[in-house]
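step 3/5: co-fold with pyridoxal-5'-phosphate
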Amino acid sequence: MAPKKIYNLETELVLNKNGDQHNASVPPLYQSATFKQESLSNMGEYDYTRSGNPTRTQLQNHIAKIMKANHAFAVTSGMGCLDVITRLLAPGDEVLAGDDLYGGTNRLLTYLNKKGDLKVQHWDTTNTELFLSKITPNTKMIFLESPTNPLIKVCDVRSIATHAHKVNPDCVVVFDNTMMSPIFMTPLDLGVDIQYESATKYLNGHHDIMAGVIATRDAKLAERVYFVINSTGCGLTPFDCWLLMRGLRTLAVRIERQQQNALRIAEFLSNLGFRVRYPGLKSHPQYALHQSLCRGPGAVLSFETGSIKTSERIVEGTDIFGIAVSFGCVNSLISMPCRMSHASIDEKTRKERDFPEDLIRLCIGIENCDDLIDDLTKALLKSGAVKLNERDELFNAVSVQPKL
Ligand SMILES: Cc1ncc(COP(=O)(O)O)c(C=O)c1O
Ligand SMILES: N[C@@H](CCSC[C@H](N)C(=O)O)C(=O)O
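step 4/5: write tokens
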């Protein structure tokens, strides 16, 4: 049989050869907890949805293809992915992690560390030399994010994965690709062992489900991941699998439009004098590194105003941008990570990790970009963060103290 042709990602996302017995154009939804057996001795492919479900299989095969993996799994949230992955470790195992991770990731790793289940160390992943020096033959797992949420730090994942495997061939390098999605990054091509994503974000894109996906090329790791998912019962429900497959079809067009808007907004804020963190700007300290690893800068950016009060006024002064956690949705969102998504990281730790309390995060949607810039302009003026000059043109940001 001729090998199956693999098309470009945009095509694969919408191409749906689901092999349905009735040629349904859309993969059918098997909303069933149980499956009858042919006989006592012949169980068939499915028996119970916790163990497996045809709709989940459809989604997982699709995910494996678009992430260039051999095995993929869908679970109930991004944090669910991390829970499954950390269960692969043994008591007391040493793990390394970045020092700017999504707040919930930090919370779970801190919990496991405090309980004594794992020995977790956090290091700045932008300092490659330092990070590499912390990897020892006892390092069992490494957790990376790039660009990080919300400080948009970029790490040299290729060098970290190569070095980790040299020092300990059994070290499992885990990469959270939520910020880039498969459209802009293929971490498995860079030497990562396990990639996971909060599918609540770009993969689904409409903020109407919670989901997470795990992908790997390693059959043994896949077997262990499946064991945990089946044992703990965190597989994604059939209906949410079905919704996620629907969302995935538009991933490429959504995220490309979001990125286009984000680039314009990042330039707009930067031109006003704000310190903008976005890997699409040449001023980003790891601009070239990011370009060498990814196919685009994505649609999340953050910026500082120099004053917590000013930031609060900006966040509360927008109309189109919703004040909400999360990102990757078709709608634009604005937030203050210290108060919202990253509030679970205590103030002392935030300070130690140079986490600016006035940081505003923008998650850009697919709206008309002129409208978004107009909305931000009004909020910036109302907050006093920028002023108009005599010719009624926007004038430099007034309270910013650039720290670049
Ligand atoms: C980078 C990143 N990873 C993982 C998660 C966790 O995903 P979920 O909310 O689907 O559990 C989030 C956000 O919640 C995130 O921002
Ligand atoms: N209350 C939630 C906060 C979720 S933050 C979601 C998202 N990852 C983001 O970065 O905005 C919690 O405590 O987990």
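step 5/5: annotate
The chain has two domains: 9-248, 251-397.
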